[in-house]
DNA sequence: TGACATAGTACCCAAAAAGTAACTGTAAGG
DNA sequence: CCTTACAGTTACTTTTTGGGTACTATGTCA
């Protein structure tokens, strides 16, 4: 919107849960309910919304298996993987921050 | 809250404008109205709130000069400066993202 | 026959975040 | 004497966000 790179990043990961979701998926593919349990107390509604947005930004890939009960897997796209270094630098700083405020 | 380093980082910079403010201050000290003009359309209220929170997290320093009209300067604290690399990696990724979606 | 599991959607309401407008004090400049 | 500048604060309204509940489909298991 503004052309500022930092704001561009924020617009993609601005959602309350997006980075947490991406951070989980960085460790590997997960199913919907798996994500929900991992990130609790996120609600199904919020999880769905955030996943849809991440998908439309091409950061994650949604794979539906036509089975019953339904099976849907989420994973980072190749593009989404380019975001891992950013999250790593966040994690590193967060670690220091946690120690500092311990 | 959760002990997750990424979430810890998010809790500090979660405000809508915080990173933008920090990113500005990374280039140097700024006065209140200077910041407001630079970050428009942020409102005075929001700017005040975000600055106060950043200050109480010790990321920025507020310096008041007892003159009329008032003069208040904001700058990154030493601790705040440790966040610059994180913002740089965000900016880098944002640049690629902007090009990709150009 | 009936419950269970998965991955959602639809709708309504409450809470939180953000915006708006008016007000503060004081000195300088016209 | 009236206006402008700065750096806010306060009260009120609006918008956005998030939560709760109920509902969907259908194959398997008991």
Automatic annotation (TrEMBL), chains A, B:
> Which residues are in the HTH hxlR-type domain?
4-102
Keywords (A to Z) from UniProt:
DNA-binding, Transcription, Transcription regulation
The source's superkingdom equals Bacteria
Q: Does the keyword Transcription regulation apply?
A: yes
Instruction: Supply the Pfam families for this chain.
Output: HxlR (PF01638)
Q: Does the keyword 4Fe-4S apply?
A: no
Q: Which GO terms describe its molecular function?
A: DNA binding
Q: List the InterPro entries.
A: HTH_HxlR (IPR002577), WH-like_DNA-bd_sf (IPR036388), WH_DNA-bd_sf (IPR036390)
Give the protein name, as stated in the record.
Answer: HxlR family transcriptional regulator
Tell me what organism the protein belongs to. Paenibacillus cellulosilyticus
